[in-house]
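Weekly modeling sync, notes
Attendees: S.R. (lead), two postdocs, one rotation student

Agenda item 3: backlog of single-chain predictions. S.R. asked that every request posted to the team notebook include the full sequence so nobody has to chase files. The rotation student volunteered to paste the first one in as an example of the format we agreed on. Action items at the bottom.

Example entry:
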Amino acid sequence: MKISSIREKVVKEVNQIPEEKLAQVLDLIHHFRLGLQLSKKKTAKVTDFAGCWKDMPEDVYQDFIRDITQRRHTAFSRRKNRETDIS
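Predicted structure, as returned to the notebook:
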């Protein structure tokens, strides 16, 4: 379906909404649009780091992964102990 025909259908639907409900529809559309903008910004921030380790030598990368795995294991095992300790 073409964008222009979708836009026309949206306009037709909005034109059928009772006047007392238009403010709610406007809020919905506005917040939906803002949410899309925020989502794009978050995606851009995350992808800024994409490929940041691509030039890292394999042995250094493997050490890095092992270190992260160990740190996560240590952090989560401490948290698990705190969560199960009722005293």
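Discussion: group reviewed the output briefly. The chain has a mean pLDDT of 82.
Action items: rotation student to repeat for the remaining queue; S.R. to check formatting next week.
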